Amino acid sequence: MTDLYDYPVVIEVPVAWGEMDSFKHVNNVHYFRYFESARTKYVEELKILDFMNNYAKGPILSETSAKFLAPVSYPDTLSIGIRSIKAEGGKLIQEYAIWSQEQSRLVTTGESTMLFFDYKIGKRCDIPTELAKRMVKLEPLLAKSLETASI
Fold first, then answer.
1. Distance CA 112, CA 94 (A)
2. pLDDT tens, residue by residue, 13-72
3. What is the pLDDT of residue 150?
4. How distant, in Å, are the alpha carbons of 3, 74, 76, 107 from that of 16?
């Protein structure tokens, strides 16, 4: 699994029989659910939901994409990694990698953009300083792109 060492958050997901489609491989919609599960774990690691409950500021998914490198079928266990590659202003761009344990290879990559939002006023906002600090603690390489967040 050498491809996932650079990802600060990695989850394991068993492929369910019902995730396969009539072409006998995992249907593409499930990959976005795998990304969502990894993103949720990332959010949990940073305790972003606690921050949102206290300050009504947090991320909202703006876009996501996937590149399918090889089909996956049942039975398999997938390792899904997520890392942030750029954070500035109110935008966080993240990458995903999905590793098939059955195939011993990378099978899918992806990217998403999250925008930070002030839910009280209903508008975009910069990444809050406290969250920026948490992100840098988890991913030190983000420090450079978050310099504008006054961390």
1. 5
2. 999 999 999 999 999 999 999 999 999 999 999 999 999 999 999 999 999 999 999 999
3. 47
4. 23, 6, 8, 16
pLDDT digits (tens, 9 = 90+) for 99-139: 999 999 999 999 999 999 999 999 999 999 999 999 999 99
End-to-end CA distance of the chain: 33
Residue 26 CA to residue 28 CA, distance in Å, equals: 6
Q: Are 139 and 146 in contact (CB under 8 A)?
A: no
All domains of the chain in start order, with CATH: 2-149 (3.10.129.10)
DSSP H helices in the chain: 28-46, 48-55, 129-138
Kindly state the tokens that stand for 143: 């420090």
DSSP category for residue 75: S
- Tokens encoding 108: 């899918």
Beta strands in 57-129 (DSSP E): 57-68, 77-88, 91-100, 105-118, 123-124
Full-model pTM? 0.92
Q: Residue 76 corresponds to which tokens in the numbers above? A: 């398999």
